[in-house]
Design a protein that fits this description.
With 171 residues, this protein is mainly β. Helices cover 11% and strands 39% of the residues. It has 2 domains: 83 residues, Roll (Chitinase A, domain 3); 49 residues, Thrombin, subunit H (Beta Barrel). The radius of gyration is 21 Å and the shape is elongated. 13% of the residues are buried.
């Protein structure tokens, strides 16, 4: 196991879960390692990034976050309940994201949070808004980043091996 610790210029791979403090439910989780160069790009909330400083491969940390500080309090004016027949069919499934635009041309993503025979509820609040959560992070790898990774902000992924593949024109 490496004794390198997270700091600027280090390549880090980690997984994490976001857990609701009240219910203990896992709200979201990243199962495949997330790779980034510390100090080059902030992939998580600044509070979480600060807590990663000085940690090493194999460390597991928990960072409590009050999402009101990140996203502000819930705004009930961003919750819209419509009759199902007034909502296009493609927007009637829970989890569907809808990009809406106001009369000033500003856009905001809303999420379908409830749908039944009679009504569809669409919410413009961030799903974590109003919650207190814990980010549980497991650090899988810490090493010096290469110059290419620093320039790219993370791991450089190889594309598919196309040796011997012939392009077919599309008509």
């Amino acid at each position: 196991m490496s004794n390198e610790t997270i700091g600027d210029g280090k390549y880090v791979e980690l997984t994490y879960k976001v857990i609701d403090q009240k219910s203990g439910a896992v709200l979201t989780q990243v199962e495949y390692p997330l790779g980034y160069v510390h100090g080059v790009n902030e992939i998580l909330a600044p509070t979480v990034m600060a807590e990663l400083e000085g940690k090493a491969t194999g460390d597991v940390i928990e960072v409590p976050i009050d999402c009101n500080e990140l996203y502000g309090p819930r705004d009930e004016s961003l919750v819209i309940v419509e009759k199902t027949q007034d909502v296009p069919e493609e927007y009637r499934e829970v989890g569907t994201a809808i990009l809406m635009e106001n009369d000033r041309g500003q856009t905001k993503t809303f999420l379908v949070t409830q749908a039944d025979r009679r009504t569809v509820t669409i919410d413009g609040n961030n799903p974590l808004c109003g919650r207190e959560v814990v980010f549980r992070l497991e650090i899988l790898l810490v090493r010096d980043a290469t110059d290419e990774e620093i320039a790219h902000g993370g791991k450089l992924e190889d594309g598919p091996d196309l040796d011997g593949v012939t392009a077919v024109p599309i008509e």
